[in-house]
Amino acid sequence: METVADYKEIVDVIKASGGDAFKRCFQCGLCDTVCPWNRVRNFSMRKLVRQATFGFTEIESEEMWLCTTCGRCPQQCPRDVKQIESGIALRRVATEYGVFPDSVKPIRAASGSLIGEGNPLGEERKKRADWAKGLSVKTFTEDMEILYFPGCYLCYDPRLKKVAAATAKILNAAGVDFGILGAKENCCGESIRKTGDEELFKRLAKENIKTFIDNGVKKILV
Fold first, then answer.
1. Residues 62/99, Cβ–Cβ less than 8 Å
2. Do 82 and 168 fall within a single domain?
3. Is 46 within a domain?
4. Is the C-alpha dihedral spanning 81, 83, 84, 88 positive or negative?
5. Of the candidates 69, 102, 135, which is a domain's last residue?
6. Domain range spanning residue 22?
7. Would residue 114 count as lying in a domain?
């Protein structure tokens, strides 16, 4: 049975964006119980789902952006509401209309950096392989066995660069024939996808797939 909503048009938009599963929620509250956010502040996924059911979602609100998509709520949900997918669907609606609360507006800068430099961190594309300096890491060629795809944070974050370097050292010690794409590499797009920008995610995915094909990549280590 469909829920009778005062704002059916809004409900239809949310459903079209991938949030159809929220209608199965019967408000048991398990999602709120396991949510790690509730250890530090009041946040209710149950409330967001309920609002979406009736089309009362406030897309200008910060609430829909607080979920970190950790995955604990869908693991516990007895009705398979798919809270993460439903939450991202709400963000898609906000992104489509360009409506962001002040705390989320930096997403626009991240999107611009993804388009221009291939990463959401505002870093230069030409510095993407700087983490590998002095490690005997080669540029990937078609005859190599594995492409190592470290991703944005391992390439740029001062702390996480150590993870990429350690991985490269292990691969070298194991005699694995591998290389990296360096400046040719783009962000995987997963972070921007979680903000609801599906179009930019698809654009990045297509660019990466084309790069993999053009360079003869057969195996990828992420």
1. no
2. no
3. yes
4. positive
5. 102
6. 8-102
7. no
What does the pLDDT look like over 160-199, one tens digit per residue? 999 999 999 999 999 999 999 999 999 999 999 999 899 9
DSSP annotation of 61 reads S
Contacts of 43 (CB under 8 A, 6+ apart): 32, 35, 37, 63, 66, 67
Angle at 27 between CA 24 and CA 33, to 5 degrees: 120
Domains in the chain, number: 2
133 and 217 belong to one structural domain:
yes
Q: Does residue 74 contact residue 86 with C-beta atoms inside 8 Å?
A: no
Q: Which residues lie below 8 Å from residue 35, measured CB to CB, with a gap of 6+?
A: 43, 45, 72, 73
In a domain, 115, yes or no: no
Residues 23 and 96 in one domain: yes
Looking at the domain assignment, is residue 72 inside a domain? yes
- Condensed to tens digits (0 to 9), the pLDDT of residues 11-25 reads 777 777 667 788 889
pLDDT at 27 over 70: yes
pLDDT recorded at residue 2: 43
Query: Closest Cα to residue 192, out of 76, 106, 90, 110?
Result: 110
Residues 159 and 213 in one domain: yes
Q: Tell me the sheet residues that pair with 148.
A: 221
Could you give the CA distance from residue 52 to residue 23 in angstroms, rounded to a whole number? Answer: 8
